[in-house]
Amino acid sequence: xxxxxxxxPEYVNARVRARRAALFTDDEYRKLVRMSPAEIAxxxxxxxxxxxINALGTRHSGVDLIEYALNRxxxxxxDDLLDFSEGKVYDLIARYLxxxxxxxxxxxxxxxxxxxxxxxxxTDLIRAGEFSDRMISRLLDAGTIEDVVTILxxxxxxxxxxxxxxxxxxxxxxxxxxxxxxxxxxxxxxxxLPNTEPVQLYREFLVAEIDFRNARNALRLARSGADIDPAxxxxxxxxxxxxxELNTLVQDQEELVxxxxxxxxxxxxxxxxxxxxxxxxxxSFERGIEKVLLAYSKRLGNVYPMSIxxxxxxxxxxxxxxxxxxxxxxxxxxxxxxxxxxxELVIL
Length: 348
What we know:
single chain
């Protein structure tokens, strides 16, 4: 790995194409939905998850085995991406993988909020960002959410979390803290990007992701009914909302949905927005947003194969694979029906 000098997008994308071909298909998800957790683990052992299942099988079983294997495999693949990337390609991938630092910070905060034990929280962590094992251990050992905020001082999340903690104390809602973490991540993604065509495509995708994140956060705030200034947690860099527009629209969910529908994303989000209005389900909306982002990244990767876009598309697709298998295993353990589990999946 070389963080300076010439980039190697052709080589990285060739490696990514091979790994993308190994991802689970929609038909495989439908087969998994009919299996028990033990059967899912045995099926995973026949795939590229073999090494993780075998290494962890003596200590874990059932859903725990599946989740630990999924997270370890995900981290391995993304570490590999960095290992065979050079120059600007390495920098862009490393920036994007900080999303797992954000994921881990939010997961630990949520766990403390609901009183989960350390082992339960650790199961959901994905060690694929920049946080060291020592940092993650410190966060897991934190006794309170305030301790987590203190530990994260000096990271890209520190300043925003410190400011958001006051709102959390006043409302007892996690929205301010989660939005602050998102802002810390996305706020550094667009820093100092060169004005070249391949990087512009990367920027285009990031702008879309920021817009959809603002839309999701705005709807969460609208539904919470909390007296929180949405503009204070606005993520800069998008084009869908200005801070003042968001502050107004969050007061009226129908206007908020109409604003999204009339935007440049409206055509791609039509089905998602219709479903949101019909079933009044935030979960359905968030699944739909993830599906749109997945399709959008895949399209960019197909149109511009020598840019960073195929790598970002693969990262999202691998994430979705892990989330889908986890959702199936948890759903089967909880006794959900096949249709209930399938409604939780993000597939194209």
